[in-house]
Amino acid sequence: MKTRVLSAIIASIIAIPLIYVGGYPFYLGVGILAMLGYKELMDLRKSHKKLPKLMIFFGVVCLALLILDNFVERATYFGVSYERIILSLIFLTLPTVYYQDKYSTKDAFYLLGITLFLGITFNLFIIARNRSLMLFIYLLSIPILTDTFAYIFGKAFGKNKLCPKISPNKTWEGSFAGFFAGTIGGVIIYSLLVKPFSFKIVLVTAILSVVGQIGDLFMSKIKRENAIKDFSNIMPGHGGILDRLDSFIFVILTYFLLMLYL
After folding, report:
1. How confident is the model at residue 227 (pLDDT cuts 50, 70, 90)?
2. Using only C-alpha atoms, what is the Rg of the chain?
3. Contact 178, 145 (CB under 8 A)
4. Which pLDDT score, from 0 to 100, does residue 49 have?
C-alpha cells in the first residue's frame, strides 16, 4: 500500500505541473507517455516476436508524427490529418513485400493498429489541453471519480460480478456507484470550471462515465488474453502507463466524437 501511495504522489508531482503549464513541456510529457505505451503493447506480442527492428522504428516515427500533427494550431484544430494517417499506412504495410516471411501482413496490421490507436489518442490529449486547461481537468475527473467510487463501493458492497471472465473484482454495485459519482462530479466540475450547467453536458458526462468503464474492461481483456497482471511495472503498485490511462483514453476519444454530433 505504501508503494502504491508513493507512486501516486510521485506521478502527481510530475503530471500536475505539466498539465498546468501546457505547451511544449506538456507535449514532451505526452510524447514520452505514448512511447512508453507503445513499448508496453509491443512487449505483449506473441506471434509477432520477430518483428524487424526497422519496422518497430518506423512505428515509433509514425507514432510521433501522429501525436504532434498540427499541435501548433492549438484550440482551432481537431484531429490528425489524413497525410499523417496515409504515411503510417504506407510505411507500415508496404514493407511486407520486401521482408516477405520476416514481416507478414498480420505483423503489419498489428503494428499499424498500435500506432494509430496510440497516435490518435495522444494527439487528442494535446488538443484537449490546448483548447482549455479546465476542459482537460473536466475530462480527467470523470474516469478518476468513476474508478475511485467504483472501487470503494465495489469493495464494500459489491456482490454481483460485472465481467468475471475479464475482471473478477469488478461488480455491478461498484459500477453503478462509479457511474453516478463520475456523472454528478463531472457535471459539477464542468459547470464550475468550463461552462454553465446544461442538460447536454449531463448526457455527455454520463456517456463518458459508461464508456470509460467499458474502456477499462477492454484494456483488462488485453491483459487477460496475454496472461499478465499489468502492462508494465513502471509505476510500482499501479502497473504501467496503459493501466493508469485505460479509462481516460476512451473518455477522450468518445468526447471528441460526441462533440461532432451534439
Report:
1. confident
2. 19
3. yes
4. 66
SS3 state of residue 161: strand
Work out the angle at residue 218's Cα, subtended by the Cα atoms of residues 132 and 34, and round it to the nearest 5 degrees.
50
C-alpha span between 245 and 247 (Å, rounded):
6
The 10s digit of each residue's pLDDT in 142-187 is 999 999 999 999 999 989 999 999 999 999 999 999 999 999 999 9
pLDDT band with cut points at 50, 70 and 90 for residue 46: low
Single pTM value for the model: 0.92
- Tell me the three-class secondary structure of 14-77, residue by residue: HHHHHHHHCHHHHHHHHHHHHHHHHHHHHCCCCCCCCCCHHHHHHHHHHHHHHHCCCHHHHHHC
Distance CA 179, CA 177 (A): 5
What are the φ/ψ torsions at residue 61 (nearest 5 degrees)? -60, -45
Express the helix, strand and coil content of the chain in percent, nearest 5 each. Answer: 75, 5, 20
| pLDDT tier at 45, thresholds 50, 70, 90 | confident
How would you label 235-253 residue by residue, b for 16+ Cβ within 10 Å and e otherwise?
beebbbbbbbbbbbbbbbb
Q: Give the three-class secondary structure for 187.
A: helix
